[in-house]
Amino acid sequence: MTARVGIVVFPGSNCELDCRRSFERLGATTEFVWHDDRELPDSDIVVLPGGFAHGDYLRTGALARFSPIMNAVVRHADAGKLLIGICNGFQVLCEAGLLPGALRKNEGLKFLCKWTELSVEVPGTPFTTRAERHQRLRIPINHFEGNWYAEPDTLERMRADDQIVFRYVRNPNGSLDGVAGISNERGNVLGLMPHPERACEALLGSEDGAVIIGSMLDHVMNMQPSPAAV
Amino acid sequence: MSQTETVHRDLGLTDDEFNAICDRLGREPSYTELAMFSVMWSEHCSYKSSRVHLKTLPTQGERILVGPGEGAGIIEVADGVAVAWKIESHNHPSFVEPFNGAATGVGGIVRDILSMGARPIALMDPLRFGPLDDARTRYVVDGVVHGISSYGNSIGVPTVGGEAVFEDCYAENPLVNVACLGIVDTKLMHGRAEVPGQVAILFGSSTGRDGIGGASVLASAEFDQDSLEKRPSVQVGDPFSEKLLIECSLELIRGGLVASFQDLGAGGISCPTSEMTAKGGTGIRIDLDEVHRREPNMEPFEVMISESQERMLAVVDAADVAEVLAVCGKWGVEARPLGEITKTGKVEVSAGGKLVADVPSLALAEEGPVYERPIERPRWLADINAAPSGDEPPEHYGRTFIRMVSSPQLASKRWIWEQYDHMIFLGTVLGPGGDAAVIRLPGTETAVAISTDGPGRLCMLDPYEGARHAVAESARNVATVGARPTAITNCLNFGSPERAEVMWQFSEVVRGISDACRDLNTPVTGGNVSFYNETNSRPIYPTPVIGMLGILGDPAAAVGIGFQDEGDAIVLLGTTELGDFGGSEYGKIINGAIGGVPPHLDMDSERALHEVLVTGGHGGLFKSAHDLSGGGLAVALAECSFASQRGFSVQVGGTEPYRALYSETPSRALVSCPQAAVDEVLALAGHGGVAAEVIGAVAGDMCDFSVFAVTLEEARSAWEGGLSDHLSATMGPDGD
Q1: What angle (nearest 5°) sits at the alpha carbon of residue B696, between those of residues B690 and B700?
Q2: For residues A113-133, average pLDDT
Q3: A180 vs B652: which has the higher pLDDT
Q4: Is B442's CB within 8 Å of A195's CB?
Q5: I need a surface site. Which of B129, B183, B332, B584 has the fewest CB within 10 A?
Q6: What is the pLDDT of residues B281-338, one digit of tens each?
């Protein structure tokens, strides 16, 4: 039994192939889901990959939330299953109201593609079971709009609820509270600006992304009914 | 006198060319026909001034599957794995409108690669600008980099390297070249329409008035004070449409739905309709009423030559038309049957039910004028060759070193490449900041190395020798990472071909490339010529930019430039000629001198060095490798040190240590290895006929040259800030 991962492809998505390669490398099976579809294939995990969905016209992620597949994505999250939005996918999740806050242009008003260090702020979530508290992960960012913001009371509540899952060790883009990745209250939806799928191979500079992706796969496998119970 | 007899000049055609068109047609051309000829016979599209020279280039090789003349050269890099490799220029548009000029340059080369049935997988951007103390230059740099970043990142093709050169001669003629690597997806495509009855389908963005006359009016004339008013001739890019076009085109090819294929670039619809039928020995009949447009009331000639971006022409079987349209529909790409391939040998164009053009394909595509322009060696050259090269000792060794590494020319280019997505596709084994980028090809476990190089200053001092240096250094760059130099693409950037001095430079450069490529067994797979890079009669340096492709094989064999471990030995490979300062960075930056002659380049030594680098790299002998180029030994050591933040201690001898430190003798490289492997490295070099000397070791946190030393911290921060300190605050054309 392997985790089944549905990777949503919007027109303008461009990290879907990389997500497929890294999730499969870690043992998952993947299936691409076209944005125009109305139903997801049977999926334990849904990935909204990076890219420029619908050209990022109007505002990053603003049009993608209206793609037909998004209703099914919301139902998937409502059912408590794992949903991760990476980079542009994070922006889509914020626009869709599945995660709080918004992603503004980087403080330096430049696109940034570089390696960053993340600190795991909340271990034990479905996305961090393989990590320890304050473990450092070397994972690259690749965005123009990664400067996360939320109202102060929202931020307070999220801190209290352990929703700030990843922080940058050195803030590259002005993101509020150094936020790199956040979850919803229930803890099954994660938005992450850095690209874990780009950091799953020593040849490419880091295997730390496998901590996050591997945690998700572990979580799914642990949720499977054991053979004895069937 | 007929109307067209004066109109042709406005379209960029000479009186003789106009007469030749009349002779060929046996009548005067219609206005639409004249417009078609004006773009197809433009310098940009017809290579009329360069063709007689270019045909002397070596283009054959056992790995060359497709040479010059198609959308891109195709090289077999492993069994059943073929890559497309091509460089283009977008110089003129990028000065007039930096953001869109550079962005559409990326779009154009990507479609060239796509037209071969290849998925674009890596971009490189060799850029040349004026000095950064000029506000307009900073605006151009910012706009160009932003344009490349915006377009390349959106279409999801990594930009993995390039160059950034700053020189007075490029102030009003920046060079924006862009190279693209692709991997043939399922089937190698071609641009020959061979079967009458097949249907031509235009798909992609709508057609508007943007970029009318881009090839003829903008790219085939020199600049003057009115050039900035040519902004409407610059195309506007939409990377989202391009991304859809890439995926849609690849799906069409995978489905076996396309017989032949060409992108629309310079010349608009005129170009693929005439070229594909000329190559295929057919004709085509098209109806302009079927062209989907973004604005009303366009004249037929405008539709025929509009350079609206993100468009392709596919020739398909009539039975497949519905399926082709369905695939396009899925991707949201607009597509319409435009016409039919015929047996007539002519491009027949109708609009509003009337025939508006009826011209032989060959006349447009292959029978353009060919000029043997006058050639004259510049008289000023002897004076420059006799002028001082800057071979003078520095006032202060430490401060000189800091000035060198912090000059924009030699400083870190991080400010530029951090704005580019250089990682997508999970293939970037070595990215920007090294000698060459190493790209693992998707779906394979094999890697290639790519690099660009174009020493304009050396080519100004001696175009023949400079061009040989360009080829040699680009080859050295790929050899340094462990790859075997295999094939080149070239972008030849020059002033006006109507100037005899420029044509002399051009012919000398082509001769130099030819000889060097024969010596190194790296055939030319194609490229691009960009003339008229001059403003108010001041041409740029002759600047051939060589894009070298090398075959690495195992991606894990790639050797990076950074020193690795404390105590490792540092070995200098090659022989230094003390006093090689002609056209050097030291001469220019420290002594303000651009003079002398280029260093002597011996291709036997060069080949021997490559062999040692490739063999040692694959044998796992080297922990780091870096070639010596701008700034010589001192700057190369510093770059190895900065890359991994490890200091070094070396012995630099001689009574005039600056000559050992900064001479730019070619055919040299620095490698590091464990002390235990030193004997093996020296033996390998000795066996290969390459001089080798242990000059020191990786050590501590100093850049210690024995004659002087500075802390790694100080040197590195000067290097990191050398470019970004000028650019971080750039706001606009008048910004400061």
Answers
A1: 145
A2: 97
A3: A180
A4: no
A5: B332
A6: 999 999 999 999 988 889 999 999 998 899 999 999 999 999 999 999 999 999 999 9
- What is the C-alpha to C-alpha distance for residues B639 and B558, in angstroms, rounded to an integer? 17
Strands of A59-133, DSSP E: 82-86, 102-104, 112-120
The edge-to-edge listing of strands for the beta sheet with B311-316 is B260-263, B311-316, B199-204, B335-342, B283-287, B346-351, B354-360
Query: In a 3-state reduction of DSSP, which class is residue B628?
Result: coil
Here the CATH number for the domain that contains residue A112 is 3.40.50.880
Q: For residue B303, give the amino acid letter.
A: V
> Given an 8 Å threshold on Cβ–Cβ distance, is B423 in contact with A113?
yes
Q: What is the Cα–Cα distance from B715 to A156, expressed in whole angstroms?
A: 43
When divided into structural domains, chain A yields a total of 1
Mutation target to probe the A interface, by most A beta carbons within 10 A, among B106, B423, B445 is: B423
**Active-site choice (A15, A197, A200, A219):** A197
Low-confidence ranges of chain B (pLDDT < 50): 1, 4, 730-736
The per-residue pLDDT for B135 is 93
Domain with A181, as residue range(s), is: 4-229
Element (H, E) at A219: helix A209-223
- ipTM exceeding 0.90, yes/no: yes
Distance CA A225, CA A222 (A): 8
Please tell me if the domain spanning B1-41+189-369 has the same topology as the one spanning B560-725: yes
Q: What pLDDT score does B501 carry?
A: 97
A124–chain B Cβ distance below 8 A for any pair: no
Q: What is the pLDDT of residue B172?
A: 92
Search chain B and give the residue with CA nearest A22.
Answer: B426
Chain A residues in contact with B424 by the CB 8 A cut-off are: 14-15, 18, 142, 198
Burial of A118: CB neighbours in 10 Å, binned 0-12, 13-18, 19+: buried
Kindly list the distances between the CA atom of residue B655 and the CA atoms of A32, B571, B651, B707, in Å, as whole numbers in the listed order. 67, 21, 13, 11
In the 8-state DSSP scheme, what is residue B70?
A: B
Q: Which CATH architecture has domain B1-41+189-369?
A: Alpha-Beta Complex (3.90)
pLDDT of residue B512: 98
Specify burial of residue B605 (Cβ count, 10 A radius: 0-12, 13-18, 19+): buried
> In the numeric block, which tokens belong to residue B533?
């890079």
Active-site residue, B44 included: yes
Three-state SS at B735: coil
Task: Give me the total of CB pairs closer than 8 Å, taking one residue from chain A and one from chain B.
Answer: 78
Cβ–Cβ below 8 Å for B154 and A18: no
Q: Rounded CA gap, A34 and A41, in Å?
A: 11
Q: Which residue of B has its CA nearest to A14?
A: B156
Contact B424 A203 (CB under 8 A): no
Looking at residue B213, its pLDDT comes to 67
Judge whether A57 is closer than 8 Å to chain B, CB to CB: yes
pLDDT at A171: 97
- Beta-carbon separation of B556 and A18 below 8 A: no
**Looking at residue B734, what is its pLDDT?**
36
Nearest to A2 by CA among A218, A227, A228: A218
pLDDT tens track for B6-62: 788 888 899 999 999 999 999 999 999 999 999 999 988 889 999 999 999 999 999
- Concerning whether A197 is annotated as a catalytic residue, the answer is yes
Distance CA A217, CA A211 (A): 10
Other C-beta atoms within 10 Å of B140: how many? 28
* pLDDT tens sequence across A146-170: 999 999 999 999 999 999 999 999 9
Chain A (164-193) residues lying within 8 Å, Cβ to Cβ, of chain B: none
- CATH code assigned to B560-725: 3.90.650.10
Position B654 scores a pLDDT of 78
| Domain range summary for chain B, segments of one domain joined by + | 1-41+189-369, 560-725
For residue A54, which residues of chain B lie inside 8 Å, CB to CB? 240
